[in-house]
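note to self: the first set is below, dont mix up w the second
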Amino acid sequence: MEPRAGRRAHRSVSQHHDHPATEEGQQREGVGCDWSWGSIIWTSVGLSVSVGLGLLCCIYVATLHENDLWFSNIKEVEREISFRTECGLYYSYYKQMLQAPSIQEGLLELIHDNLTESRRTINLLQRMNIYQEVFLSVLYRLLPIKTYLEPAVYVIALYLTAWLLSGSWLAGALAGLWYILNRVDTTRVEFTISLRENWSLPFLALQVATITCYLRPQLTSFQQVMVWLMYVTTFCFCLTWQFNQFILLVQALIIYTLDCVDLLTTTQVTTLYLVQVSGLLSVWLLQFCNSMILGSLVLMLVVFLQTDLKVGGLLVRLSKILLHSVLVFLLTFTINYLTKKALQVRSDEHIFKFIKSKFALRPTRDFDASLYLCEEAFGLLPLDTLERLADTLLLYPYVPTLLLLSGTLAVAAFRNLSCSEGGSSEQKKGAAEAFRSDVAYNLLHTLLYGLVAFSTMRMKYIWTGHMCAVAAHGVCSAELWTLLLRTLRFMKCSTPDTVELMTWISTKTPKQAVFAGSMQLLAGIKLCTGRVLTNHPHYEDKDLRDRTRQVYQVYARRSPEEVYGILRAAGADYVVLENSICYERRHRRGCRLRDLLDLANGHIMDGPGENDPDLTPAEHPRFCEAIQTDGAAYTALFSRTFQNKTFHVYRLKKKRRKTPSSPAEPAATP
């Protein structure tokens, strides 16, 4: 009969070392994490496919535009009248820049324009988002370029997002193909080229890709680069669309939600908010201090979001989050109202009238609101959109992926909220293993913008493109398939991490090597590899029980010297540490293996709760956690030889000096 041990994590992407003497190296999933020749070639193929798909979409859309209008064969005036509604207005400024005697004079004409509005001289660069026309006109005057870059950039951005989420560029290829196949619902660029959203959405997609990369686990060396890329893409997005502040507001709500449920670190939250604020303020400067940007809700919201809500049990934390959220939104709208009054900002009031009227229970007589509400594009999303998405097989994988990820996110959020700040290091590690931050961000992105799309048809282009990346992630992610199979109880034997561990032991360690670890795992090691064990699950032997209790001190608060002595006394050459035991959250406080060891050693247990008066604080940190920091005291005695997301294997080094002999089985004393 054997006592239980914690469950192992199920995530399968791993990192390991072929030789026991090698030091630990960090490896990241997905793009650019392995520098072997095979990985470099595979990654290069993936990047080439992304560029190829982008160019294919570019040529395809350009051909559709040409076939629809015979654009290159019609008169100049016929080309110009093909630019519908506001597209013609924006194109006129591009044409004005091209016809100006010089770039400088063209810019002055835009800054002091008296041809757009009668009896008024306005600054077009301040009033309108037309920097893209200025940039292209300058480029056109300096370089011989004529191309449609928007579809290519958008497809490449979706490709990268799907690749980052799933770890396979095949998901990126599938996302790109879905985007092209669903062009009716993913883009309007073929017949409204100069529409603001056609310029901005590719930058939004690039921003989402950079945020996804920034939030990936174990991202270290490229973190600063990602922050700058997030800023650049956010800035370009804000510069090219007048509705940028409302899109960023939804993003701020996503960040706020993930922060509340402990799925983002304080550093990540602060960085993402600063990127948003910096992007908006940079655009504010470029648009000659446009007061509409200063009246943005997202600027007011950011001020109140950094608050410590991470103390207390489930009900306490939920109450704090609810109260804090109410205060945040009340203060946000109050300060926003006062700011707009002080600055006399009325540029965006028609948008708020539209939103208010759209969700009102009775008709409105307001002219501005009615002007929008009577347009089909600002109505509810037609159901035939879903039919078209289903016809291309996009909707079928998207919905199950959404449901599976939403359920997993709910479970992860519940677990995080059920634990307070007490055992912070283990809780953060457990949260990272329960649900990846980058996946959580993209999930909330597709959920919230999906709601926006259903409420306003014109906004569907923000949602449908991202749908392609999420659906491709669902189809190509081995991690999701593993989770699905486990949910359906079709997978009961082993995990990929365990298989990888057994393979490594069989091929990279001596056949006479002695392994220490949990009883359940060592039984598997005996079966799969034939290696020698320090302990095993046959618990009906007093000496073995004593030895097992000693070996389990690797999960207690003991010094590296004590643990080394215990393992050497048992004859161990290697010790296998399991995250699912070290950071166990399945059992209640007092029943976790680390709690049982703390009580046996006379130490206070982790986390909030009562402790017996005779228990004392431990002098040393928990060994299984502290050894992962690679401190000098630990690396002098142990060398990491294998690591994935479930297991850490350390080889016991041989001491150079001869130390005094210790008892055969050291007692488990505090």
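second set (the one i keep forgetting abt)
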Amino acid sequence: QIRLFAVKNYGRVIHEFDPWFNYRAAEYMVNNGWQKFQAWFDEEVWYPLGRHVGSTTYPGLQLTAWGIHSILHAAGYAVSLNDVCVFMPAGFGAVSAAMTGMLAWEVTRRPNAAVAATAIMAIIPAHLMRSVAGGFDNESIAVPALVTTFYLWVRSLRDDRSWPYAVLCGFSYIYMVAAWGGYIFVLNMIGLHAAMLVAVGWFSNRLWLAYTLWFLIGTSGAIFGPARYLVGWQPFQSLEQLGPMAVFFGLQLWQLTEVLAARRKLDATGRMLLRLKIFGYAGVATSFVGAFLLPEGFVGPLSARVRGLFIKHTKTGNPLVDSVAEHQATPAAVYWHYFHFTILITPLGLFATVFHNKSDAKLFLVVYTIVGGYFSGKMIRLVLLISPAASVCAGGFIDFAIRFLMDAIAEGDVGDVAVSQPKPPKETGRPTKTAKPPKGARKPPTARQERASSASDASSIWKELEEVYAENVVLRRSLGLLMVITLSLAAFRFVPHCFSLGASISEPQIMVRGRQRDGSLVIIDDFREAYWWLRDNTPEDARVMAWWDYGYQINGVANRTTIADGNTWNHEHIALLGKCLVSPESASHAITRHLADYVLIWTTRHAGMHADDLAKSPHMARIAGSVYPDINPQNFYMDRQGTPSKMMEASLLYNLHGWKLDPKIPPLTHFEEAYTTTNKMVRIYKVLDVSEESKTWRKTHGPGYPPQLDDVIKTAKAFQQIHGFQ
């Protein structure tokens, strides 16, 4: 219910931007099959370059939608693909909650903790943000895949007979790889956990077997599975994926040491010397291979997005990555917003759960919570990753509070008897008169000795408090009751908070609601209105230039060719798009006439919402300036009073934004207003004097820039990713 607000308020509508591409891709897969999907080169996007979808898409979401749609039709239910895609995130959100409960059970072995974790995960906003109906995005299936993989991993370590769960974990990981690029987090979490088990001295034969099975099956599936075109050989070449591979080989060497030591009947010292010798030989061999056999550049650097997790936002070295709002560092207020009281009891739950009956699964929870918590602070969208861990920890603390109270109540008269028992009398006799210390007696205590004495006194005080606590059942009952009442009051605030935020998160963005002067609600549908106008009033082969954010919606709703979209695979092409928008009208038109027939811009500030293209334009200038030296982003800005710089004031974007609405805007020469939506939130302009020669060249020669743009392309410098941390 908490995930269906959008369906109740707006109907069965796909949300936001990326889900529109995902829906369009799923539709293509359903209509054409898996083989054609893999070979699909989409001519209607990234004009004039196009895009090979099979090598730039994680296909797990589309495969899942196709499978559900096919099963329902085979069972006689005529459900539309749109409905499947709308409801899938809500359904998989329930799967995430159930698997989080299973993870909590495996970690704590407490049914109360499992039930509480399931309930929290079912409604916690940090999970809702990617699992509401209509949000047909990769994360909606990736989170249940992540939690399932983690559960199967810790389950495989329960005992020596649990190795089949490692096989299932490998297949679950393959699905995770097909679903989302966040599989790298899952890969490194399992690798780090295995390494930590060895580091704390908990190596076992079941750890070696489970990790070996998982790694071999999972890595093979990643390389040769559904996402093979996208993943390729990255597990052996990508710097962020080499750590788990090193753990794999390290475990093989460790197991070899154990086997040889057992056969030779070596003692602990001999076992250690043998281990050092084997690892030393392996280190020399690895160094030789890395230095002399691997080609230069075989191992690539960290990607911009991963590097952004270790450095301050806007410092990743890639202005395109830095321009995305959800890549910003997470403010502290976001944690209360998305986790509410669970963020306060998560550390308490971790402590109460882990430091009692230690196990491999509990160490995993420690590693997951700490590492996930760190990365969630680096990027807003990554608070999603920590939601299962927070739910398990919070569930563990709720279970602890209930057990604490129940145990105190169950003591009954036993505790009362203990309290009434008299304490042994203290010795009260006065000491005899002390004689003078003889010669050679100890000197007065030093400062260090006094500190040691103080520590001893503090220890004795603590022991005395423990005795009072152990003897006083009323105190224990009061503390337990206080914890349970506090948690109950927090829950009474938590549940309404989740439902309120769930309704807010469910707003589809492609449609918004507002209030009229009389207070009545009205749906503002300017975005779809603009796309429908393009669909109904432009030629089928019309090309629409818009900032890359809106490309998916233009493709999915208007069914028109776009210049760029949210895939952002080609930095230089987006820089060319940015150059068109931030350059003066005449300079822009000289390029635009060879690329587009229409220009679409968001002007939502005219309706009181300021996240429009004018607000994004400094990012456009930075991206353009990273490739084209004639664009100086330092000169493109708007001050706090809303006054644009000279460069911004002269730009095409600024002039299209304010045409006929700002008397200071001069008449347009090369562009003509075609359509402005009802609430002036979207404006569409027709490009005058479009180059038919360039359009014909593209149809004849295929993907590529027409020769008429050679002079512009020659001025571009290939974008060089800044790999430094500054």
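remember for set 2: Residues 413-430, 722-726 have pLDDT under 50 and may be disordered.
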